[in-house]
Every structure is written in C-alpha cells, then in structure tokens.
Amino acid sequence: MTISRKVFFAGCCGGVIGLCVAIVLGWLSSYMSLSPMLILPLWPTSIFGIAFNGPLTFSWTSILVIVLVFGGNALLYSIVVALLARLFFSFMPTSHEE
Amino acid sequence: MGTGDIDTMQVLASTRTLDTSTTSPLVCLLSTTFAHQSISTGKERDSESGNDYFEARYYASSMGRWLSPDPGGMAVVDLEFPQTLNRYAYVNNNPLSFTDPFGLDCAYLNNAGNGVESVDQQSSAGECGKSGGYWVNGGLTNININADQGSVQMTGTTNGTDQTHASYQDANVVVSEWNNTIANPANHIAISLPGQRPVGQNPLSDSDFISNIALNGFKYNVVPGTIKPQTNTGKLLKVAVVPVTGMQAKMIQAFINQSMANPSNYSLNTQLGLDCATWVQQLLGNAGVQTGPMQPMPDDLMNQLGSMYKVY
Lengths: 98, 312
Prior knowledge:
Strand content of chain B: 25-35%
Structural class of chain B: alpha+beta
Largest sheet of chain B: 4 strands, antiparallel
Number of domains of chain B: 3
Distance between the termini of chain B: 53 Å
Strand content of chain A: under 5%
Oligomer: heterodimer
Number of helices of chain B: 7
C-alpha cells in the first residue's frame, strides 16, 4: 500500500470518528447538559448550530445546519488525521516490502 | 426641544443643589441664571425655560407634560391603566384631579418583610425596584403587607384626596435550560414568570446567523435578534428558581415585553449583541436580581445560578 493510500485511508477513518463524536455528543446533550469545555474542542463545528433552537425539520436551514455541524466535524477530523498520518509516514523508515 | 436640551437641564438641576462655596465658576455662572419662584405644585420654576423642577425630572407646565420619560422605564407601565404607557404624561393626563408633589415614592420593607423600614421620596421606580423596594405613584398613604403570601398592596395620593394604587406579588422567576435539537449541544436558555411560557433570545433567521458566523467568525458575528417562545419539542434539562419581589417581577415582565417589541441583536460576542444566556442575565440584572458575572454558555450560566439559587 502506498503512503498516499495510507494517508487517504487514515483520513477516511478520521472522518468516521469525527462523525461518531458529533453524533454521540449530540445524543448525550439531549439527556444531560454538557460543558462547553468538552463540546467545543471535541466538536468545534457545533458552533454553527449554537443558535439553532428550533426542531430539525425538512427545511433548507435544517439541512444546512446538519451538513455544517455534523459533516463539518467529519471533514475537520479527516483533515487533521490525514495530516497527522502524512507526518507520521514521512518520518517512518521505508518498510521492507517497498 | 431636543433630547440634548433635556439632558442639559438635568445636569443643571443636579448642580443647583451644590454648596456654592465648593462649586466651580461655571456652575456659579449657570446658577445665577436661575431665578426660582414657587408655583401651585410647590416646585421651583426656572424663569428662563418656564419648566418646573421635580426631584426626578423636569415638568413643562406650558405643555402639561414631563420633559423626559418616567425614569422608572417600562416598569412603571400598568396595563390595567393604559394611560401609564405614556411615560411623558403628568398624573396620567388628569391634572384637574391630581398633582404629584413628590414625583415618585418608594417603600422598603424590613428584613422580615412584614413592615416598612423606610420610604424614599427621592427615588425613581427603576431604582426602587432594583433595590428591592415597592413603588407607588405619589405619596405613600397606606401599605398592606402579607409576609406569608409575599403580597404588598400600596395606596398613594397625588393631591391629598384622590388615591393611587399599586399591587405586588412576590414570585419565582424560572430560568430553564433546554435542548431543542442534537445539532445544538450547547443548549438554550429561556426565562419565564409564573403561568407563562418560557421565552428566549434567538437570531431572527438561523440561516443568516450560520452564514454570518461562517464569514465573521466567533468574535464578530452579529445578526438581528428576536424573542421566541420555547417550543414543546425541546427537552428540559435544568431549572433554576430565582425568587424576586413583586416589583421586580413586574419589571422583568416589562423588560420582556420591551425586548419582544424591540429585540436586541443576536451575537455570541456580548459587545455586539446578546445571546440567549446573556439576554436572561441582562434582563434579571436590569431588575436588580443578582446572577453573577456574564456567562454566554447556557451550561456555565446554570452552574453559576446553582451556586446562588435552587437548581433542579
């Protein structure tokens, strides 16, 4: 597997983790009040939904909020994880198979 | 006459009571331009402007109205008496029946809440409520206090015969934290008076706020705001019960009504506008209710209120 594929795979995993973190925190917040010190570092894109106080309905605003808040976190995590992976592999000695 | 002139008049009024031995040359110069004379209300009249000086504000006898609105703000408005909506009106536009020799009157109860400790005749309704007092139009003549029920009924007079009335009921204001959608894990803060649906500060348009914060960031976002009632679909997470005096409850109600009619901008930066938590804190602060330092995040505010009041 080439380094670029490994980085892409790591990015995809990061995206899934980011989406899961957002969903879990969002679900938890409907049962207990969570500290902003926990939410903002783990789910930075939740800032886009901070003023959204209506129910999620099938409207353009709701779709925009969901895409930005959940999709944005997935994208953010995937970028960060891919960058870390790229950094990691660039410092790793070349493997025996390659 | 513009607002600037009124402000100047009020500044002059405050300088006139100074001891001339300690006043600046400017104040002395200004004070020489005022020749006072008594009129039927027993208040001093400025010979130059023809306005009468009451303790709280100036009265233009030529126009039959106050030069500035009642300093008590919207708190002095009693919807049972619509004339009180006109905060410039003198004795509710009924000068043949009333005079208002004190302008304003405020009673403070003792610590036990079962008797009057003092009456401040130099107060304003706003200052009175913020300090935990009870206000009546004119001079206080009678007060009935029911300490057990937290109710206060006051009677005043503006001319010695006709009566004015004020009725107050102590109340618990409820500050509540809501989760309305999983897309907003920071939750929402609303406030309610007894028997009313909770209301809170929101952006007028959610999509405007989202695009605004995307463009301007956390620090410089600001959009028009609105006061919305809490929806039934939200989940109630925490409730803080804040006891207030009857006067403060009326002030809070008046501030809510004022915010509904003329909402502040919505912003996460308190320098530019108000978010839901800051709006509630400002509302309570305007009525003299202590809530501590400003906390823009709902969870932080509820934790802070938890150290001062009962939180469930």
